[in-house]
Write a structure and sequence with these properties.
Elements lengths: L1 E7 L7 H12 L7 E3 L2 E8 L2 E9 L8 E7 L6 H12 L6 H8 L3 H9 L11 H11 L4 H15 L1 E5 L2 E5 L3 H13 L5 H16 L12 H9 L6 H10 L12 H11 L7 H8 L6 H13 L3 H5 L1
Antiparallel strand pairs: 1-5, 2-3, 3-4, 4-5, 6-7
Helix pairs in contact: 4-13, 5-8, 5-10, 7-8, 9-10
This protein binds a DNA duplex through helix 5, helix 6, helix 8, helix 10 and helix 11.
Length: about 300
DNA sequence: AGCCAGGCTCTCG
DNA sequence: CGAGAGCATGGC
């Protein structure tokens, strides 16, 4: 096995550490899709039927960011390094203009403190819409800890394993694989009957071509949400979540999200829990950047920064 | 033990 | 329209 490398220069400011931590939080667990250990971000992706391990580490700083990307695996070719670099740019959203975001919303004193603590955090993305969708459906309603356990089983049972230095990394299973797993296979992962049906329905649509998920990148926000919500199992929360997580839309805003409602209530409300409508109204304060605000609030929540910010 | 989790569909008024 | 039941499972 050999490896090839490529350099990648993100737009400044860019915090490799914060961005990778957030990625790992979204898809992590006992077995993770995006892993971040010892300063190395790793992810298994397929190219022409070859499962390759793509990794990145930082060789710069937040203000002078520079990443070294590596691609490793069977039958890897020099040309794969550029391909891997393109994926890291997508996954870690390395060319997002964070400075413009800070200018636009930094005037808000409460939010300003969050931005300062998370300077350079970029809104990382899922590799595909399909992946974001399946993971979102798994995460619907259930506690985050339970979702992590189910994700781990999904990867271990149906993912594409790549072994390196005694560790195993998993690529996300394709629609055909999950389709073959069937209802029984998915239920064994502790998914409800309905969630299994939702996921299989999506796999079927992807397989037959009636559901073009990856083509949604070129559509407007309204078009994407409109089409997604028509799919069984996808409601407003999932559609907005996928819009932000996979398509990188900075204005995606899952107003129905319980954790988001609680967080906004804590920071801006009177402690009373916010309704979905009130949450959506509040999102308009940050028109155009609501999704990025959500990224920052959830990161602050995970890192337990809200207590000190509130005080 | 019972209630709730980073929702959605279906049913019923 | 809006409201309510049911879903699976692990934590508290």
């Amino acid at each position: 096995m050999t490896a090839y490398h490529a350099e990648l220069i993100p737009r400044s400011p860019f915090s490799f550490d914060l961005t990778c931590q957030a990625m790992a939080a979204h898809t992590g667990g006992p077995v993770a899709l995006d892993t971040y250990e010892g300063g190395v971000f790793r992810r298994v992706l397929s190219r022409d039927g070859r499962a390759l391990l793509v990794s990145a580490r930082s060789e710069g700083s937040v203000d002078r960011p520079r990443l070294m990307v590596e691609v490793w695996g069977d039958a890897v070719e020099p040309d794969d390094a550029k391909w891997a670099s393109g994926w890291i740019r997508h996954l870690l959203a390395t060319d997002e203009d964070l400075a413009a975001f800070y200018d636009a919303v930094g005037g808000d004193p409460t939010l300003g403190k969050v931005l300062a603590r998370l300077h350079g955090l970029s809104p990382g993305r899922a590799a595909t819409v399909f992946e974001a969708l399946v993971l979102s459906i798994i995460g619907q309603q259930i506690a985050a800890t339970v979702a992590r356990l189910i994700r781990a089983d999904l990867l271990q049972v149906y993912g594409t394993p790549v072994r390196r230095d005694g560790a195993t990394y998993y690529g996300f299973p394709g629609a055909e694989t999950l389709l073959a797993a069937g209802t029984d296979g998915l239920r064994k992962l502790r998914l409800s009957q309905r969630k299994a049906e939702y996921i299989l329905g999506i796999c079927e649509g992807v397989g037959t071509g009636t559901l073009d998920l990856e083509g949604m990148a070129s559509l407007t926000r309204e078009e994407v949400v409109g089409r997604l919500v028509r799919v069984r199992g996808i409601g407003p929360w999932t559609a907005e979540w996928v819009l932000g997580r996979a398509l990188g839309r900075l204005d995606a805003f899952p107003a129905g999200d319980l954790a988001l409602q609680r967080t906004l209530s804590r920071l801006y409300g009177d402690g009373r829990s916010l309704s979905e409508r009130e949450t959506a109204d509040m999102g308009r304060r940050w028109e155009g950047y609501q999704g990025l605000v959500v990224t920052y609030l959830f990161a602050a929540l995970r890192l337990r920064l809200l207590d000190e910010i509130q005080a």
